[in-house]
Amino acid sequence: MEYIIGLDCGGTKTEAFAYNVKTGEEVASAISGFGNLVVDYDLGMSHITSSIVSIFELLEGSHCKGIVLGIAGVDAGGLKEKVSNDLMTIHPTIYIFNDGQLAHFSILKGRDGICVTAGTGSVVLGLHQHKWYRIGGWGHLFGDEGSAYWIAKQAIKLALSDEDNSFQPSNLTLAIFKFFDVKDVFSLTKRLYMLSKTDIASLTTVIAQMSEEGNQEATLLLKQAGIQLGIAVEEMLRKSKLSKESLEIGLNGSVIEKNAQVFSSFHNCLEDSDINVTYCHKQSSCAKGAYYYYKMRELEGFPWGMQ
């Protein structure tokens, strides 16, 4: 049985799956530590390598057609070439994408369209006639509009505005104080500068809960996040020339996948722009993008094993 290996290399874990190239059936899997090579190249690469080796311990290595990886931040500074060279000792056929591209292949199954990722961060990727397009994804300092971090940051700015305007702390502000275990904005800001972006983004779960309980400030923040993601799609359409008459959009990440308020606002934004959308939902690990990438090349007559 011939198979393809897909790896989704994330900030907390590396997921490796082997798929039958004929049927797409998952035939082996392995999970290891984080695969974000920007954070720690050597340790991240050791996790990636161990995941691949674990697959080869379960399946005959000579039957592997190739390895497709999705790695966050891999487009920067020659990293893709370094990863490829380091992995050539394991297998001669290596394809490397960023994690958003692998998600695109997985959710849209190799078809043209847009993938909206909104989790801790955000990015919108488009694929049209074999060419990639990108809107956003510039990180929490300069972008990530509509993401969990962005929502949390807007909520924190409202709390600071209460203080600047000598307002009594709102219910949302008090909930922020409670979440971060502080008593005022001064201790809040001190604590925030000691936290990671993931820690700050986790505030969004409280905002979502408050919205469900009827808090208008929280609901408005979630609606604004959906609008930001909708605007990014509109920008993508102008950039990529994808047709708004029949557009497939893949949804990836907890904010856009699981928050009904964000999705509703996002959908309404696209409707207002007369965009005819079919939504595609994630059905398996983004690692399955490897299989759909293989089938896409096969269907379009691109030789496998050639970059």
Automatic annotation (TrEMBL):
Spans through the membrane: none
InterPro entries for the chain: ATPase_BadF, ATPase_NBD, NAGK-like
N-terminal signal peptide: none
Gene Ontology MF, one: N-acetylglucosamine kinase activity
Domain ATPase BadF/BadG/BcrA/BcrD type stretches: 5-290
Domain of life assignment: Bacteria
Name of the featured protein: ATPase BadF/BadG/BcrA/BcrD type domain-containing protein
Species in which this protein is naturally found: Vagococcus martis
Organism lineage: Bacteria, Bacillati, Bacillota, Bacilli, Lactobacillales
